[in-house]
Design goal:
CATH class: Alpha Beta
Distance between the termini: 47 Å
Number of domains: 1
Number of strands: 7
Strand order of the largest sheet: 3-2-1-4-5-7-6
CATH topology: Rossmann fold
Number of helices: 7
Structural class: alpha/beta
Order of helices and strands: HHHEHEHEEHEEEH
Helix content: 25-40%
Strand content: 15-25%
Amino acid sequence: MNVEQFVPALALFTKQYLQQNPNHPYGDNISQYTDERGVMYLCDAYNTIIAHASGRVLDVGSGIGIAKLIDPYIHTANLPSNKYFSQGPANYFSEVEELFNLEKDYICRDCARHRRWIETDHTFDSIILHRFLPWDNTVTNNTLFNIFTEIDRLLNLGGVLLYTPISTDKLYTSNWLQLSTGMHTFKITKRQLYDTIQTYKVL
């Protein structure tokens, strides 16, 4: 399935999912995927980001699996499947993964609670964090420390992090290369990642 087929099929599935789950606690978040133009914009952003990736690539918090749709060789990490949750966004994302054959390679845990929150010891040349924490200025320095140390653990020497935070609050971005994606997307080297970790380590 290509992007042009995926986008309307996802919108239709999401509308039906919300009709069947009208009181879903994360319905407002899920409803964004009924907007075909918004999803196409997200696909375009992923295309731009993937163009800056090379080697073995991992997309963390992969959501609806756009990176794997664009390039099936990209590895993905996402929330656990339905069997771990009685309700919540994991149900929706797991159903999207299964329906469109975009199933994740690795499981993610809560980065605010776990130091090793990505369940793999494989390493990668490029790691993508797209539309990721912080959501706003309420995120703690400890969570940011956990995010960056875990990415550093999985990133090969000479590798890069391609990072699009929802908010740049609490982030020190002046030394990061900003990419043109229409969002705050940064290309961060392993050395810059190390410097970032030290910043949050001393706060």
